[in-house]
Amino acid sequence: MSKPPSHSNPPSDKPSAPDLTDAQLERLRADIEQWAEEAGFQQCGFSSVDTGEHGARLQQWLDAGYHGDMSYMEDHITERGPMRALPDELLPGTLSVISLRMDYMAPGVEVAQHLADKNNAYISRYALGRDYHKLIRKRLTQLGKRIQGAIGELGFRAFVDSAPILERALAEQAGLGWIGKNTMLINRRAGSYFFLGEILTDLPLTPNAKLERDRCGRCTSCLEICPTQAFVGPHILDARRCISYLTIELDGPIPETLRDGIGNRIFGCDDCQIGCPWNRFTKATEEKDFTPRHQLDKATLLELFAWDEDTFLKKTEGMPIRRTGYESWVRNIAVALGNAPKSIEVVEILKHRRGAVSAMVDEHIDWALQKQGSSL
Predict the structure, then answer these.
(1) Is residue 348 assigned to a domain?
(2) Does the residue 238 lie in any domain?
(3) How many domains are contained in the chain?
(4) Does 96 belong to an annotated binding site?
(5) pLDDT score recorded for residue 16
(6) Which of 14, 84, 257, 306 has a CA 20 to 30 Å removed from the CA of 51?
(7) Has 161 been annotated as catalytic?
(8) Residue 223 lies in a domain
């Protein structure tokens, strides 16, 4: 959900791809799947630029205001509709989209158990290691260049959460899974703990003929587990109530009515994935860069609340966490400390940090002190 940074390679300035026979294109598809595996991706699929009804659904979501302060979601509206649903508007000449996924859950990382101890600081598991944008974009660009080297010429552009594009819709079209009731892409052999990336190309590659059917059935676990009741209904998320939005995207104070629900989650939220039965099939990643840094998968609220801004910037260098900024980081932990078990130690550190960052943070510290049963 976090606002995408500008990480995408510029369009190739070479001529468009040469005409290839159907047999050559089918052979190339098979080669791309093999090269994608060699590049560290767990799955690769192909689709056209057609995102079906997803463009209309996006516009309805925007019209309802569910995007909150994420104004960038409203950008790039064309005469045909939102550019996010139109890859050929994003990159004119695009005929095909290659969608890829990469698992990110590091071996041995606890999820529900760590979250259950309210003294712990819970960070969404995708954000514990190196910033995925840089790693995956590099792999995608290398894959694009390998395709280019095989056929001589190719117009392509690689993206990973870095442009106005409906990556889950395209991945669904490419057969990588189905979009669940929690709006996540779910794969029946791997759950949903994975990143997505895309290569837009002018190659007329045959789209995947077999799409994964929706296997959510009557299950509503993901909707029911949401601590802030952010789901309006199946497939509809009100971002304004989502903990990922509140702890990452939202500038300024977190609405008081939602603070209790945040619990000890200080950057993002995995609850709608924790509640999904398909995540029992989660595969551990082999990517060392996704290994948690500074033992942040085991950190407590007290130790992270003690970080000054220099420590925060140093410890989060090259990580997704840095995008939230120090002020919001301290704000989030203050709320979590208010929700923590009552203790003298928590009260003392809250009082000690009061006045150290900003008036906005102090307001959250005051709320936390009240929750701890302490006067200012």
Answers:
(1) no
(2) yes
(3) 1
(4) no
(5) 55
(6) 14
(7) yes
(8) yes
Look up residue 156 and give its amino acid. F
d(CA 336, CA 323): 19
State yes or no: pLDDT of 10 exceeds 60. no
Would the annotation count 196 as a binding residue? yes
User: How far is it, in rounded angstroms, from Cα 140 to Cα 98?
Assistant: 10
Q: What is the pLDDT of residues 290-310, one digit of tens each?
A: 999 999 999 999 999 999 999
What contacts 95, CB < 8 A, 6 or more positions away? 48, 49, 88, 201, 202, 203, 204, 205
What would the pLDDT profile of 178-218 be if each residue is shown by its tens digit?
999 999 999 999 999 999 999 999 999 999 988 899 999 99
CA distance 37 to 120: 36
Q: Is 84 annotated as a binding residue?
A: yes
Q: Which helix (H) or strand (E) holds 339?
A: helix 326-339
Q: Which candidate in 161, 202, 238, 271 is catalytic? A: 161
Q: What distance in Å separates the CA atoms of residue 25 and residue 215, rounded to the nearest whole number? A: 31
- In which domain, by residue range, is 169 found? 1-106+127-248+269-292
What phi and psi values does residue 21 have, to the nearest 5 degrees?
-70, 165
Question: Tokens 């000690």 identify what position?
Answer: 352
Q: Is 44 known to sit in a ligand binding site?
A: no
Largest CA distance in the chain: 76
In a domain, 355, yes or no: no
Q: Is the pLDDT of residue 165 over 60?
A: yes
